[in-house]
Design brief:
- α2 packs parallel to α7.
- The chain has a single domain, classed as Rossmann fold (3-Layer(aba) Sandwich), CATH 3.40.50.850.
- The chain has a 6-stranded parallel sheet with strand order 3-2-1-4-5-6, sandwiched between helices.
- By secondary structure, it is α/β, with parallel strands linked by helices.
- InterPro entries: Isochorismatase-like_dom, Isochorismatase-like_hydrls, Isochorismatase-like_sf.
- GO terms for molecular function: hydrolase activity.
- Keywords: Hydrolase.
């Protein structure tokens, strides 16, 4: 049994639609999912999601207070996971309420229940969900790998600094192609 899981985070229609990415990003990320699935590595889809009316959001939280009414609720088509990386039957979808995949979700319970101690992180944005999840996972003593080209950020320089200078202090940083070679 594997102790590794691939976390594909915030690759939702509205977020992908706002993120600048080349035509290779989603196919590259889909390759990582295929490699995980072929290698028996669980794929966990992490999404941001709120109840109608956003009762989880405080006006003190700059990022979430600025969301339009109805954003990332069950009725919002933009909250759907992008079809290029959509979950297959039986794959777990984790709904979070804040930036980190751990905050306001049952991620840690799912990981512990599955005996997972190694997280492979990908998603949008590098300076958001990836950074916050990496920091919390490191504090929780998970082994961490970041798929550098499986992450996107609105600021390419911030992405570069994080993946080349900050993340290597707490994680192994690989390209999708490098990781695919080891995933099977």
């Amino acid at each position: 049994m594997t102790t590794t899981a691939l976390l594909v985070m915030d690759v939702q229609q509205a977020i992908v639609g706002r993120a600048e990415h080349g035509p290779d990003y989603l196919p590259r990320l889909a390759r990582a999912l295929d490699a995980a699935r072929d290698g028996g590595i669980p794929v966990l889809h992490v999404v941001i999601g709120f109840r109608a009316g956003h009762p989880e959001n405080s006006g003190r939280n700059r990022a979430f207070a600025a969301l339009p009414p109805g954003a990332f609720t069950a009725d919002d088509p933009g909250a759907a996971i992008h079809p290029a990386v959509a979950p297959r039957p039986g794959e777990t979808v984790i709904t979070k309420k804040r930036v980190s995949a751990f905050t306001g979700s049952d991620l840690e319970v799912v990981l512990r229940s599955g005996g997972i101690d190694h997280l492979v992180l990908a998603g949008i944005a590098t300076s958001g969900v990836v950074l916050s999840t990496l920091r919390q996972a490191a504090d929780l003593d998970y082994r961490i790998t970041v798929l550098a080209d499986g992450c996107l950020d609105p600021d390419p320089e911030v992405h570069r600094v994080l993946t080349e200078k900050v993340f290597p202090r707490q994680a192994e940083v690989l390209t999708v192609d490098e990781w695919v070679k080891t995933a099977g």
